[in-house]
Amino acid sequence: MDKWYVGVDIGGTTIKLGFVTEAGEIVTKWEIPTDTNNGGRNITIHIGQAIKSKCSELNESYDRLQAIGVGAPGFIEMKTGFIYQAVNIGWKDFALKDELEKETGLQVTVDNDANIAALGEMWKGAGDGAADLLCVTLGTGVGGGLVTNGQILHGVNGMAGEIGHLTSIPEGGAPCNCGKTGCLETIASATGIARLAKEAIDKNPQTTLANKAEVTSKEVFEAAAEGDEVALEVVDEVCFHLGLALANIANTVNPAKIVIGGGVSKAGDHLLNPLAREFNRFALGRVASGAEFKIASLGNDAGIIGGAWLAKQG
Amino acid sequence: MDKWYVGVDIGGTTIKLGFVTEAGEIVTKWEIPTDTNNGGRNITIHIGQAIKSKCSELNESYDRLQAIGVGAPGFIEMKTGFIYQAVNIGWKDFALKDELEKETGLQVTVDNDANIAALGEMWKGAGDGAADLLCVTLGTGVGGGLVTNGQILHGVNGMAGEIGHLTSIPEGGAPCNCGKTGCLETIASATGIARLAKEAIDKNPQTTLANKAEVTSKEVFEAAAEGDEVALEVVDEVCFHLGLALANIANTVNPAKIVIGGGVSKAGDHLLNPLAREFNRFALGRVASGAEFKIASLGNDAGIIGGAWLAKQG
C-alpha cells in the first residue's frame, strides 16, 4: 500500500494540513485555527491531534503516514527545524521539528512557507517538474522562492530568494518595511501598485480610476484592460521594474520557469504580457528563451503539496 | 598511496595542467600550447600525451591518476561534456569528454572555465570552503560563477552566472558585446572602466589621468588612491553600479563569500572599500552581514585546482 506524506502549512490565522500520495495527489486536506497563545506552544500539540483524528475519521492506520513536511513563517534554521522567531505565531526560540516529532512519532522536515510553496509548484503545479525554478509571490509584499538543481536554495543564512528587496530605484525611492528605500516590493506588490495608482490619480484626475472608492491592484489591471491610459502607465511602470529585476535574476540563475503567484497574479495575461515584454528587453537571448512565465496554479494547496515533497525527500 | 587528480584548464592560447592531491595541493603544474588547427581535434591527443609524459618524468605510475576535471570555454553540455561551440578553440560539436576519456583511459568531467575557477577558489582559495559562493571576474569582460550548496549552479541551459549582463543602465547605456545596452560589463570591466575614464577626461582635462598615454583601469585606481577627484568619481560610479548589482544578486542567492578576481581586482582595497560601502547600502542587513568580500587568491591556478575538485566529485 502506498505511503502518505503529511504537508503542513502554518500561517498566522490557520494551519493547512493534507495527506498526500507518493505521486503528489492530495488525498484529503483540512484546516485548523492557529493558536498563538502561550508563545505558540500549543501548535505542535494541535497538529499532532489533528493528524491522528483525521486518520481515525478516514479509518486509516496511522502507519500509513511516512513523514511530515512543514512550512512555517519567520526565521528558521532549516537543518534543525529551529525557529528563532516568528512574530505572527508568537514563537521565539522554538524547536518546531523536535516538538512535532515528539507529538507525532514521525520524521519532520521544516522550511519556510515561501519555499515550500515553490516546491509545491515545482512538483505538481505551474513549475511542471522544472529543476530550476523561480517562484515570485506578488501579494501584500513581494516574496520569492528559488529551486536550483531540484533543491530549495537557502543561501548561507536562509535569506536566499528575498527578491522583494532587490533595489529598483537606487536613489529617492519609496520607503520599504525592510528599512531601505526603492525596493521592488514598494512597486510590484499589491500595496506598491495601489500606491503608484494613487499618485497617478492625483496627477491625472480624468482617469476612470478616480471614480473608484478604493483603488487596488485588481482595479488598476481592470482599468488597463479597458484602455484607461493612466492605468496602463501604472501597469507599464510596474512591469518595467519587475521585468528588469526578474531578467537580472534570470541572467544570474537561468531558471526554466518563472512562476508568478499571489493576489496580483490574478491579472493573468494582463500582467504576463507586458511583463514578458520588459523581461525580454533585459534578459540575455538564451536566458529568455530558456525561461517560461507561468501563473501559479496550486493556490492555497501549494504549501501542503510542497510540504509533502519535502517530507518525501526526508 | 594517495591518488592524484588531473586539473586541466583549456584556453585559447595555452592549456594549463596540474596533478593535484586529494587535499587540493598542486604536486606539479605545467602548460602546453593550444593547437587550434584541424578544428581543435588535436587538443585531446596532446593533453593525453602531456599527462603520460609528465608521469614518466616524475617516475610515477600512471595508475596514481584517478580522474580528470576540465575547464573549457564556449557553450558546453555539462553532463555529457559535449562542446557545441568554442570559437576561440575552433571546436564545433566536439565530444570533449568522450575523446579525452579515449585518449587517457581516465574518467573525465567537463565544466566551463569560469565555473571551475569558482570551484578552485571555493576549495582552496579565497572562498575558503564556503558552500555558497559568488565569484566575479572583472577582466576584459565581467564573468561570474555561482556555487550553491557546494555545487556549481548551471541553470536550465548553462547560462547561470552571466552576471556581466545584468542591466545596470536600463535606458541609454553603452552598447555591450551581447547586443544589449547598459550591461554591468560596459561599466565594471577593465574595458568599461577605461571607457568611463576617457569620457571623464574629455569633460575634465585638468585630471592627472589626462597626462597618461593610455588610461587603463589600473591607472584609474592609482590616480584615485592619490586623490585625483576625477578618478575618484570614476571609481565611485563603477562601485555604485557593481555594488548595486552584487547586492541584488546577494539578496537573491545569499552567498557566504563574494570573491572578486580578474585584472581589475588587483586594485585590492582601493576597489573593495568603496565596493563594500555601496553593497551595504543596497543589500538587506542579514544578507550583508552574511557575505564577506575577498580578492581571489589562486590566480592562474584556480582552474587547475577547480578542475581537480570536479574530478574528485566524479
Task: Quickly list its features.
23% strand; 314 residues; homodimer; alpha/beta; 10 helices; 5-stranded mixed β-sheet; 2 domains
Radius of gyration of chain A: 21 Å
Kindly identify the CATH topology of the largest domain in chain A: Nucleotidyltransferase, domain 5
Would you identify the CATH H-level superfamily of the largest domain in chain A?
Answer: ATPase, nucleotide binding domain
Structural class of chain A: alpha/beta
- The share of residues in helices of chain A is 25-40%
Protein name (chains A, B): Glucokinase
Family (chains A, B): Belongs to the ROK (NagC/XylR) family.
GO cellular component, one term (chains A, B): cytoplasm
Pfam family, one (chains A, B): ROK
